[in-house]
Amino acid sequence: MNNEHPLKKTALKVLEDWGMMLVDEVSKSEAQFDQSLPLYMSWVEMKGAFEGAVSIISQEQFLKTLAGNLLGASEESLSDEDAKDAFREMGNVLAGNFLTEAYGTDLSFDVTPPQVNEIPFSELATLGSRPVSFYFVADELPVAISFSIRERA
Amino acid sequence: MSYNVLLVDDSSVVRKVLKKTFALAGVPIGKLVEAENGRVGLDRLGEGWIDVVFLDINMPVMNGIEFVRAVRASEEHRHLPIVIVSTEGAQDRIDELRAAGVKHYLRKPVTPEQLAEAIQEVLGGLPSHE
Fold it and tell me: What are phi and psi of B8, to 5 degrees?
């Protein structure tokens, strides 16, 4: 019986589908983000049987690697917007495939268009307190992925 | 013979990837027109002949479902073939889109084989070159 969490399973598949050659799940402390560089978050919110969000946190080099893999282009030829756009789309694909993996095709959700923002490092610290969060090293680049359900008032 | 294709997706990277996928699938493209949302897509339809639309669902300004409804309500474009390219997995949404006349549904990420199959279904295959 496969007890792998659907978010972890989906994240691994999306990372591999998008050209990351070596993807390993690691502990939070092993996901070494560079505090001297900006941190970016791609996130998608969903509303249906529950309200929640899927988010991915990583740094510029990951965004560029992702865009380069997708477009088959050298990182030097990519714009910052290409890199952010690829990261934004990864949030979209991850959220959509995760919802199907976790909840099947019978439940429908309204999903917001994905967004990318630069976030403070303090946001990374709060990620570990979320019930579902996974850390990966993809081609030597740290990535944090989480899913949270918002309590209804 | 080649096809004029409208790509409607808010991600420019996805549009670029789809262009490459068309080439890998051997689909001859005459004119490839891009739009970043459904509203711009409707404007593009008014600018010249389009054979088929490849459409995302989750977009700002006007989403894919709203675009399909607008196209189906138009006298000029009501029979235009539309292929959805999305992460949407809910069966009732897919059924709703098919009921609105969407010809084919592709789940992201799309392979060249899936793209060729979609062209086969909605346009009767790749055009033959004399």
Answer: -115, 105
**Closest B-chain CA to A15:** B109
Q: Which segments in chain A show pLDDT lower than 50? A: none
**In B, which residues are within 8 Å of A77 by CB distance?**
none
**Looking at domain B3-110, what is its CATH homologous superfamily?**
Response regulator (3.40.50.2300)
Tell me: the pLDDT tens digits for A16-28?
A: 988 899 999 999 8
Q: Which of A69, A71, A75, A92 to probe the B interface (max B CBs under 10 A)?
A: A92
Q: Give me the residues of chain B with pLDDT under 70, please.
A: 125-130
Structural domains of chain A, with CATH = 6-150 (3.40.1550.10)
Give the integer Cα–Cα distance in Å for B11 and A62.
Answer: 18
Q: What is the pLDDT of residue A128?
A: 65
Which position has the token pair 């409804």? B69
Pick from A17, A86, A111: CB nearest B13: A86
Q: What is the pLDDT of residue B129?
A: 41
Residue spans of the domains in chain B: they are 3-110
Please judge whether A96 and B58 are an interchain contact, meaning their C-beta atoms are less than 8 angstroms apart. yes
Spell out the alpha helix ranges (H) of chain B: 12-25, 38-45, 64-72, 91-99, 112-123
pTM: predicted TM-score of the whole model, two decimal places: 0.88
